[in-house]
Design goal:
Radius of gyration: 20 Å
CATH architecture of the largest domain: 3-Layer(aba) Sandwich
CATH class of the largest domain: Alpha Beta
Distance between the termini: 24 Å
Helix content: 25-40%
CATH topology of the largest domain: Rossmann fold
Strand order of the largest sheet: 9-8-7-10-11
Number of helices: 13
Strand content: 5-15%
Oligomer: single chain
Largest sheet: 5 strands, parallel
Structural class: alpha/beta
Number of domains: 2
Length: 339
Amino acid sequence: MNSTSNPDNFLYLSDWSTDDLKSIIDLGLKLKKNNYREHIAEDRVLGLFFNNPSLRTLISFQTAAAHLGAQSVVIQPGKSSWNIELDDGTVMDGGNQEHIKEMMPVLSSYVDTLGIRYFASFKDEETDKNDTIIKKMANYSSIPVINMESATAHPCQAMADWMTLNEVAGPALDDVNVVLTWAPHPHPLPRAVPQTSLEAFVRSGANVTLTCPAEMMLDASVMNNIKRYSNGNLTVTNERSAALQNADIVYAKSWHANAIYSDPEEEKKIRNKYKKWTLTAREMATTRSARFMHCLPIRRNVVAEDAVLDDPKAVHIQQAENRLHIQKAILMKLWNLSL
């Protein structure tokens, strides 16, 4: 399990065994099939801390809690609550009014479980790559913490992706080919989703191909962690056309180039150099009638063409719906609730 103070956190997929993750997915599938809405958690309160914007994560967690009979409260620093100071030893004579050392113990006394969303800043490479902020917040918490997307990981999204893969391709995935492809975007985006979803797909047993420009390759430490779960079912290539030809699932996602910390202007030039990586209907026609996946929100005709998104084989809406069911399953797991 994870190294933070509470062993019941849901911070990283790597904290959990593959069997445990599969059991959560199986539960999510059952909850969806039964349209499960039983108030078995009426005594629970779920806190939702959002340092960054959200649509699906916020609403799906609030709805999941409501379906189980639990209450939810939203904390937005700088909006509905005070600005948060994270650093130790700081003289707090600036714009941050609340220190994490007080905030987290107080929240731990008010709610039963706390979801946290805190993106990569793109300002401090060491802090982002080590996921320092969410780990620090979890360490000051005495209640379970759920990662609703941190600098390096988005386990709730990855679990919904895995659940969707099971729905459209079946639980036996050894003959299923999943291609995770980089796609362009006008802004640099974090790597939390591609890194965690890639791990989920590899651990699912599917044949997985990561295809991206060389400058977009994921961190070596992340890739080494994912390779620990690979049984020869992970391929990495810069040749997207060849990768797509055998695809049953195509997952398009944008993320930043490696130069983001050392030279942001150079990072922008690199991204702009690969604008032709927009996923097209012509490319999808070369696949094995592949399903299209994306975590949303998506920039139409930048990440993928309208024709790709509007095709009946696209399952990104189904994928988004599954956030509700898998998060309901995660809450039930952390709260020791059963059907």
